[in-house]
Amino acid sequence: MKTWVPFTRKELLNTIKSCNNTLTPSLDKLSWRHLKKIVRNEECIDKLIDIANVYIDLEHRPSHFKTLSTVIIPKPNKVLYDLPKVFCPIVLFNTTDKLFKKIIEERMQFLLIFNNFIHPCQLGELKHRSTIDIDIILTHFIRSRWVKNLTMSTLAFNITQFFPLLNHQLLPLILAKAGFNPKVSNFFKNYLVSRKSKYL
What we know:
This protein has one domain (about 10-70, about 90-195). Helix 1 (about 10-15) packs across helix 4 and helix 7 runs antiparallel to helix 8. It has a three-stranded mixed sheet, with no helix packed on it. The radius of gyration is 21 Å and the shape is globular. The longest helix is centred in the middle third of the chain and has 20 residues, at about 95-115. The chain has eight helices and three strands, in the order H-H-H-E-E-H-H-H-H-H-E. The protein is mainly alpha-helical.
């Protein structure tokens, strides 16, 4: 199994740089704007990096970060508000925890792509692969069929709520097969259990 290399200051700074300042903070009352000011202090950066590394070292996500806030917002311009579908639940994650998850996600995605574990046709939610790539590929397929006087049809679908519905026993096996250190697999075992949501 590959050794897990501790997270670096550069990884944290690159991750937080791309975060949107206007997103609503959760119960911790911290926004990305606040965190960006905090990481200007080198001692604070080091403390945040230590916490992110302890996540993996202890194979544990603190229960404080497993409590989410759910806000129910009415959808605009509805005649009646007597059905559940006219309301939209918004889940607010702890902002500090979101930073740690983004750092872990960036590292994992890099390693998965580097190890050729992700299928080349997987384009969504990956660095340097986007819907523009899909448009280019589809356009190429369609035009190449037109040249041969053929028609083409496509089928697109979206798997909603894939991660929450993922078999909890399967994920650690996938991570192990991808070549991750057992600490990472065990961290995700802990990550998936005892999650709670508070309604505001």
